[in-house]
Design a protein that fits this description.
about 220 residues, two-stranded antiparallel ribbon, 2 strands, 10 helices, mainly alpha
Length: about 220
C-alpha cells in the first residue's frame, strides 16, 4: 500500500500508461470526445464515491470478501451514474453504456484496500480522485486525436441527438478523414505507440521512482 501511494500518477508502475489499467476502456471511450468527457465524469463519480463509502465503513467490513464488496459498491455507483445521466440524455447513454460498465473492474484493480494498514480517509479519497483524473486525462487526450483524424469532427455531450458536433474539419477543407483511427484497431495502435513513447521518455528522463523497477512487459 505504501508503494502504491508513493507511486507517481503518470511515471510510477501503477500509472495507467505503465500498467495499461483500463486499456479496453481507453480504446472504446476515446472514439469521440463526447464519450471521453462522459467517461471522465463517470470515473471521478465512481472512484470517489466508491472509495468514500468503502473507507467510511471499513471498520465493519469482514476480513474476507473485500474485493466482492468493492466490486458491488463500484457497480452500484456506476449504475447510479448511468441512471442519472440516462434521465437527462438517454441517447448518449445508449451509445456509452456498453463501456461504462468497465469502470467498476478498473476501480477494483486500483488496489486501494489490499493492505490492512490503510491510510486516512482523506488521503484515500484524494488518491482515488487523482487516479481517476489521470485515467480521464489519458482518455480525453486520445479522443482529441482519434475523432478529428478518424471522423473529421469534434463533439461534446448534449443536444437532442445525444452529442453536439462543434467542428467539422473535413467538410470545410475538402480533406477526407483517416477512418482507420476511428475503429478499435486504430485506437489500439495509437495507444500502443503512445505507451511506447511514454515509457521511452520516462526512461530517458530518469523519472522512474526509486524502488520501482521498470516493467518487463505490458
Amino acid at each position: 500500500m505504501k508503494n502504491r501511494y508513493s507511486s507517481h500518477l503518470f511515471w510510477g508502475v501503477h500509472s495507467p500508461l505503465s500498467s495499461l489499467t483500463g486499456a479496453g476502456l481507453i480504446i472504446m471511450a476515446s472514439s469521440k470526445l463526447a464519450f471521453a468527457i462522459l467517461c471522465a465524469a463517470a470515473l471521478v463519480w465512481v472512484y470517489s464515491l466508491t472509495t468514500l463509502a468503502f473507507s467510511g465503513a471499513q471498520r465493519i467490513m469482514p476480513i474476507r470478501g473485500k474485493s466482492i464488496i468493492l466490486l458491488f459498491l463500484s457497480a452500484f455507483m456506476s449504475g447510479m451514474f448511468i441512471l442519472l445521466v440516462g434521465l437527462l440524455n438517454p441517447l448518449l447513454i445508449l451509445g456509452t453504456g456498453f463501456f461504462l460498465v468497465l469502470i467498476p473492474p478498473c476501480c477494483l484493480a486500483s488496489g486501494f484496500f489490499d493492505d490492512s494498514e490503510s491510510p486516512s480517509l482523506g488521503e484515500t479519497v484524494l488518491r482515488s480522485l487523482l487516479e481517476a483524473g489521470a485515467l480521464a486525462i489519458i482518455i480525453i487526450a486520445v479522443a482529441l486525436i482519434r475523432e478529428p483524424l478518424g471522423q473529421g469532427t469534434l463533439s461534446i455531450p448534449g443536444g437532442i441527438q445525444g452529442i453536439i458536433e462543434i467542428f467539422d474539419f473535413y467538410s470545410e477543407n475538402g480533406f477526407f478523414p483517416v477512418r482507420f483511427f476511428s475503429v478499435s484497431a486504430g485506437g489500439l495502435l495509437l495507444l500502443g505507440y503512445g505507451t511506447a513513447l511514454f515509457r521511452y521518455l520516462r526512461e530517458q528522463g530518469g523519472n522512474t521512482p526509486r524502488g520501482e523497477a521498470p516493467e518487463a512487459g505490458l
